[in-house]
Amino acid sequence: MTVTASAPGKVILFGEHAVVYGEPAIAGAIDKRIYVSVEKRGDNEMNISSSHELRDGYPYVKAAAELTFEYIGDGCGLDINIDSEFPPASGLGSSAAVSVATVLAISTVLGGKIPKEDIARLGHMVEKKVQGAASITDSSVTTLGGVLFIKPKLEIVEAVNVREIPLVVGYTGKAGSTKELVESVNALRENNPEVLDAIIHSIGRIAVKAKGVLEEGGDMGELMNINHGLLEALGVGTEKLSRYVYAAREAGAAGAKITGAGGGGCMAAYAPNRQDEVAHAIEEEGGLPLIVSIEDEGVRIETG
Length: 304
Ligand code: PMV
Hints:
Elements: E1 3-14, E2 25-40, E3 46-50, H1 59-72, E4 78-84, H2 94-109, H3 116-131, H4 137-144, E5 147-151, E6 156-160, E7 167-171, H5 178-191, H6 193-216, H7 220-233, H8 239-250, E8 255-259, E9 266-270, H9 275-284, E10 288-292, E11 300-302
Parallel strand pairs: 3-4
Antiparallel strand pairs: 1-2, 1-11, 2-4, 2-5, 5-6, 7-9, 7-10, 8-9
Helix pairs in contact: 1-2, 1-3, 2-3, 2-4, 3-4, 5-6, 6-7, 8-9
The chain binds (3R)-3-hydroxy-3-methyl-5-(phosphonooxy)pentanoic acid.
């Protein structure tokens, strides 16, 4: 019997980089998912395949399998197949999504039950094991779905009560290295602590204000534009990202910013009633547009 679990990708709406220094951030699951199908084998081998060209040896899938075997107290040989609706390694949370979907698929094949908070915890452990360090943002969002307000100091997340957020993501075709970008912000801060601390604090204030705007109404686009300017000030912008951001705004997006680590990767535009026009404008600039909205459901078993 094949069991398929899926988990959504994510965008950071507000607060990337500042969240590394303890400021709050807001991230949302997107309606593009990764699917992990698992079937028991007769032997003890693990055979992993993927529809995308992933030649990285599947470290996330392997670590997720190991931790799930440990958690359930059982194991077996497996055929695992991965399918994705969004590009991997683009800053859209594919690593966390594939990790938590693997945990749920394998635990289900083994007849075990894992509560969501433990799936998120195992997903975070996988990311830490593979990358050395990781925040709880991606593993929480992909497990729980919806929009989350992240409080990094307390390592807790709160659901943000929001209906629809029509977005267009623009992918540059190649993600920057999150680790190197975080280090570059740190170096800039060491040279200019009084300036950088004020910028980082301002980004945190934007996330707090944005939570209220998302829940009660207000101009979210304006806050995205301010956040983009501050990310530029942190030095994580690129010419391509700026071109997509300005093209999106000119095509009628209410706001647009870098999403994630920057240095390449993706930008995101908030585009109520203008998603097609904004996607077209990003494409004209050479970007890969992805029309997305917020996905309420996190990791789940696919039936049928
Ligand atoms: O590009 P991503 O999805 O890896 O996002 C990185 C976000 C940072 O705030 C820069 C780092 C982090 O761990 O929160």
